[in-house]
Every structure is written in structure tokens, then in C-alpha cells.
Amino acid sequence: MRPNDPVLYERLADQWWQPRGSFAMLHWLAAARGALVPPAPRPGAVLVDLGCGAGLLAPHLAGKGYRHVGVDLSHAALRQAGEHGVEALRADVLAVPLPDGCADVVAAGEILEHVGDLPGAVAQACRLLRPGGLLVLDTLAATALCRWVAVEIAERLPGLAPRGVHDPALLVDRAVLTGECARHGVHLELRGIRPSVTDLLLWTAGRRATVRMVPVPTTAVLFQGRGRKEE
User: Fold this and answer.
1) 1 falls within a domain
2) Element holding 30 (H helix, E strand)
3) In the chain, N or C terminus with fewer CB closer than 10 Å?
4) How many domains does the chain have?
5) Is residue 185 part of a domain?
6) What pLDDT score was predicted for residue 76?
7) How much is the pLDDT for 204?
8) Are 186 and 135 in contact (CB under 8 A)?
9) Three-state helix/strand/coil letters over 57-121
10) To 5 degrees, how large is the angle CA 144–CA 149–CA 165?
11) How far is Cα 12 from Cα 20, in angstroms, rounded to an integer?
């Protein structure tokens, strides 16, 4: 299978909600992403979840008051997302069939490193945001260090990333990302994150159910972004 092949998600469809399955780290990242999302600013507020997968963000939005709309291409993942309260929409994140300014929050978790047109994906995310709306994301940096850590190491360790899930050529240029966001009126702030080493060791030993993501001083591997669209 070629790197970044969407077929991988269909083959591993039964792994999405397994806490120790192939997508375990996506659960940890969803929790960290959800922590960036404030309570809904108004009744009927909408959160558009780009690359929603099986809806792993949903438990971390519970009680925050959003209508959760998930966009993905995987039939199997979207079926599971629907079972967790997500309004599932099958579409490409480069051509989302939703109106301009429909979203109070756009979440783009672990999706930007899988698209071949980063400016196009950013344009879609920013287009969907209403003025004052919030963009939250996490992704992988286009650096030699990230290629080594996220591809050469993580894809060989159970639960961190399935083998072949990433194409190193698609890792995200941080300057391009922030520049494209700014061009569309979103001033994105970045911070690096990683799994807690203590939690990871305890999780590996079966003594902890999940792993917290903690901040680090570099964005050279895994990072979050958060920014509001200009009023």
C-alpha cells in the first residue's frame, strides 16, 4: 500500500474506538484538541470537524453546546461518527459543501498532513468560519526531525500510528500554514505538544487508560494551532 492511502482507514475501520488499537494516539490528540474549544458562544452554534474520522472529538465536546458536523471521505468512519452524535457529511476537505461563515468553530485534527493542497485546505477551513470564529488544529511539521519521529519511529510502535499512514512529502510547512491562515483573516498561534512520557510508559504497561498531551517548546514535530477569524 502506498503511503497515505485512504484505503488504510477502511481496512482498519474496527480500530477507531479501540482505546489500545491502531488509532490510540488519535484519542489522545482529540482530547487535547477538545480542550482548545470553549463552550458554544450562542444557541445553535456549529462546529465543523474536518477529517472527523469516526468522531473521536465528540466525547470532548459533550456539554459545550455545539452542533457537531463531521466531514470525512471514509464511509466506515462516518458511520461510526454518526453513532456518536456527529452529523456526518461525506466530502473532501478541499471542497466542503457547506456555506461560507456557517461555523463558530472549525476543527482540523490530524488532517492537514494528509492533503495534497495545503493552501486549498486552509482556504476551506477559513471560509467556513464566521467572523470571530475559532480555528483549532493539530498536525505534523515538515522537518527532518518530524520525519524521523513520526514516520520512522511512531509508525513502528503499536498504538502511535499505523504503518504507512503518513506521506513525508505532505508534512506541513509551518510558515505556509500561518501565512495562508493570515491571508484569510485568521491569525494562528502555534504550540508544540507531545505525549507525556510518564503516561506513555504507564499506558504501555497497561496501568493507564489514556495518555495526556503536554506542551513542548518546539513546534518541529507535532503541534497545535489556534486562531480567530477577524471580525
Assistant:
1) no
2) helix 24-34
3) C
4) 1
5) yes
6) 96
7) 92
8) yes
9) CHHHCCCCCCEEEEEECCHHHHHHHHHCCCEEEECCCCCCCCCCCCEEEEEEECCHHHCCCHHHH
10) 100
11) 13
Question: What is the residue-averaged pLDDT of the chain?
Answer: 96
CA distances from 142 to 33, 59, 124, 168 (A): 20, 30, 21, 8
CATH number at residue 220: 3.40.50.150
pLDDT at 160: 84
Q: Which residues are registered as beta bridge partners of 191?
A: 224
| Edge-to-edge strands, sheet with 129-140 | 87-90, 67-72, 46-50, 103-109, 129-140, 222-228, 189-195, 213-216
Is-contact 142 172, C-beta < 8 A? yes
Q: What residues of the chain score a pLDDT lower than 70?
A: 1
CA–CA separation, 199 and 32 (whole Å):
14
Residue with cell 468560519: 129
Q: Which three cell numbers stand for residue 71?
A: 466531514
> pTM, whole model, 2 decimals?
0.96
Q: What is the distance of C-alpha 21 from the center of its chain?
A: 18
pLDDT on residue 159: 75
Cα(18)–Cα(15) distance, integer angstroms: 5
Domain that holds residue 95: 7-228
Residue 42 lies in a domain: yes
Question: Does residue 2 lie in a domain region?
Answer: no
